[in-house]
Cell surface glycoprotein CD200 receptor 1-A
Amino acid sequence: MEIAGKAVCVFLLLAIIKLRRSEGINRVSANLGHNTVMTCPTRTNISMVTWKINPKTGHQCTLAYRIDKDSTGKTNCSDRINWRSRPDWDQALEIQQVGKADEGNYTCEVVNADGNFHRLYHLTVIVAPRMALYCDDYGNPVCEAETEKSAAEISWVPESNSTPRADSHDNGTVTVVSWFAARSTNGKNPTCIVSHATLNETKSINCSSSYRDLILCIAIILSFLIIITFMAVIYYLKLHGCRFCHRSKPPDIIPTYSSQDDTVEVEPYTTYVQKENVIYNSVSDLTLRQNLPQGQSPAT
């Protein structure tokens, strides 16, 4: 019985291995911000393909395709993670603009009549170190270094009195910025030295000449604009302003009177005088008659 039990266990184990064939873990790396592609086992007469993604942080993501129904499914996957092409003839997975959150395990499962076949990946995202040395708007040398944690160390030759500033980002990188603030360079160009486990680089720069050139360029542009503006003002005054200067004074208006107006004004007065005389004469005649004795008539 014991031997029979062991035989059954071995048979079941072999059956499971046949149905679930998997390869060893494939370790892949991708640069931060770049695209990466992972492929599935090559098999014929595939009936179903499934990608199972287990990142270090976040939820599990699943991509599936069924051949018989020609349908795809997607669960908890970002738009950056998708099939590289049509899954009916290319089951590869593509991740666009890889980030630190994409690190983790990726498994492709292919199903056909012979069983289930798996290919496992472990993705590591590499942050390529970056160094930049430039001049700021005031003509001061600035040195930057972007690396994975921990932060890079920046030093200057000649020695600088400034304190570097470190900024941490969500993608797991750290950017260190340092300004050169030495009082004197003794005629030598400032040199930035970056030290890190993934980056050791040295660069020099001369900002004095570039800063003077910038100031000269700005001065020339401003002078040109001032001249153009001054000429435009003069032209405007010449074209419009002198019209107001040379305008002549309008002539004085002398009122005119017509003889007809005088006649109209005199006629009412003459009529009034005539009426007064008539009334006066009538009153005088009446008074004279009352004062005469009876039987006498006033002399005419």
User: Anything to note?
Assistant: DSSP finds three helices and 16 strands in the chain. Residues 208-245 form the longest helix (38 residues). The two ends are 190 Å apart (CA to CA).
